[in-house]
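Quick check before the chapter quiz. The format below is the same one you will see on the exam, so make sure you can read both the input and the output lines.
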Amino acid sequence: MRITSKGQVTIPLPFRERFGLHPGTEITFTAEHGQLFIRHQKHSGDDFDKWLAQATGSANTDQTTDEIMAETRGED
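Here is the expected output.
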């Protein structure tokens, strides 16, 4: 594999499929012990933020927090 004059390389298809590297996927380069590593940039925080925005205000009840806690703990 060769690096182009623009510093580009092609990641072979088996690696792209194995590691879920699709167009638009963000990656990072790191150097460790004299070796270069390409790492898939995870965005779990973004997914959580989207879920939280959708879930906010979705629990509608007439119970108080103390009543809900007593119910979930099995208190009488």
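If your answer matched, good. The chain has a mean pLDDT of 85.
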